[in-house]
Design the sequence.
């Protein structure tokens, strides 16, 4: 099992309908939303490339949004991980 841990950007929350859709379509095994993170659990991904998207909603207006981490790790061996950062283009935020 692989876990993808996406920390939400300041002022944003996940759109729960898009999270549920990933589970319903079988793109992820399980999801959890807690403490400003979305955790996606995937299985049978060894040696494969796997991608998915989900929507977020702006809950608070925040200026100078800083990048947030995305960590991918083995559920059973957390010392095996990859870390990247993402941000949102300010021109794509609803005003």
Sequence:
């Amino acid at each position: 099992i692989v876990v993808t841990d996406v920390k939400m950007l300041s002022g944003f929350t996940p759109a729960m309908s898009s999270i549920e859709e990933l589970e319903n379509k079988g793109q992820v095994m399980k999801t959890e939303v807690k403490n400003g993170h979305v955790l996606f659990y995937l299985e049978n991904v060894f040696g494969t490339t796997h991608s998915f998207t989900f929507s977020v909603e702006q809950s608070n207006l925040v200026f100078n949004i800083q990048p947030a981490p995305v960590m991918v790790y083995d559920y059973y061996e957390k010392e095996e991980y990859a870390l990247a950062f993402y941000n949102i283009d300010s021109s794509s935020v609803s005003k």
Observations:
- The helical segments are 16-24.
